[in-house]
Specification:
This protein is α/β, with parallel strands linked by helices and 303 residues long. Helix content is 41%, strand content 15%. The chain is built from 11 helices and 9 strands. It has a 5-stranded parallel sheet with strand order 2-1-3-4-5, sandwiched between helices. The protein has a 4-stranded parallel sheet with strand order 7-6-8-9, with helices on both faces. It is globular, with a radius of gyration of 19 Å.
């Protein structure tokens, strides 16, 4: 078993611990009514997108998400949340430094308490039990999202969203269940989501490209029929996180594609299946999912 596969399997336990940590964290978390921004790079940015949509759906305040390199310096926020597994990513540290100079309170979520982010942010949530040896992020990303989800409390009216403890139960099944043969044997995968699950769709596509070098795309689910459906056909999968929009299943069938959807599961648990698929495809092609080509654990730019 690859190290990545082993880390993927620990997510149910990590999520439960994240919920406990959020309940006892104290000051530094976004407060209801605050206008906040969430930021990160790569996978962390996609988790930021998911959390931003959830927080707004919970009615807790305007919430934007940006990659750290594209953060709009002209916008005013009451607080900024940064997600950085390594705690060393240059763009994140540069942004936190600039925000401190403007007096904006910041919260960082990280896996490593021995990194510069500890001094760069005003408050830090250390999720070190979810740190990873693999270059590819899996459990830290979802654990950070579980932490932020739990801090929100109840989010009524979001289809498929469950309390983190119930999501963890769904995750146990996602770790153990065999992957569908049609999904394993496909040549192309298009990941789709609505609201907060669009961030999960983006992350699923990234995992497949990182670990397996696979041909994947990701879109908001309602945009699928505005062009992306052209790529679907026999041997190609449309993978929907959360509720399937009305008529979309029939459209996928009409063009000969395969629809994957687990509407009864928490969508974050279904992301585990996409992570497992990425590892399985990488290993089938003789790639090392722990050390994908062209990637490093953290992007540290020279000064």
């Amino acid at each position: 078993m690859s190290r990545t596969a082993a880390e993927i399997a620990t997510q149910p336990t990590c999520w439960r611990r994240a919920a406990e940590a959020a309940a006892s964290f104290g000051e530094g978390l976004p407060q209801p009514g605050e206008r906040i921004a969430v930021t990160g790079c790569g996978t962390s940015w996609f988790m930021a997108i998911a959390y931003a949509a959830l927080r707004e759906a919970a009615g807790q305040g305007e919430t934007d998400a940006y990659p750290s390199s594209e953060f709009p310096s002209s916008r005013a926020y009451d607080r900024v949340v940064a997600i950085t597994r390594s705690g060393t990513t240059t763009e994140v540290l540069d942004l936190l430094g600039a925000l401190r100079g403007r007096g904006v309170p910041t919260l960082a979520l990280t896996a490593d308490p021995k990194t510069p982010v500890m001094d760069a942010a005003d408050a830090v949530a250390v999720l070190d039990w979810a740190d990873e040896e693999s270059v590819v992020q899996t459990r830290f990303a979802t654990t950070a999202l579980a932490f932020l989800r739990a801090a929100l409390g109840d989010v009524p009216g979001v289809p498929g969203l469950k309390p983190v403890a119930e999501a963890a139960a769904d995750a146990e099944a996602a770790v153990a269940d065999p992957l569908p043969e049609a999904v394993l044997g496909a040549e192309q995968w298009t990941f789709l989501g609505r609201g907060w699950t669009y961030g999960l769709a983006l992350e699923a596509g990234l995992k497949m490209r990182e670990a397996a070098g696979a041909w994947t795309e990701a879109y908001p689910a309602m945009e699928y029929r505005h062009g992306p459906i052209a790529i679907t056909g026999p041997g190609r999968v449309a993978w929907v996180f959360g509720a399937v929009p009305e008529g979309l299943a029939a459209d996928v069938e009409r063009v000969g594609g395969t629809l994957h959807a687990r509407e009864s599961d928490d969508p974050m648990a279904d992301l585990i299946r996409a992570q497992r698929l990425a590892v399985a495809l990488a290993e089938a092609e003789g790639h090392d999912p722990d050390r994908p080509r062209n990637l490093t654990r953290s992007v540290i730019l020279s000064s």
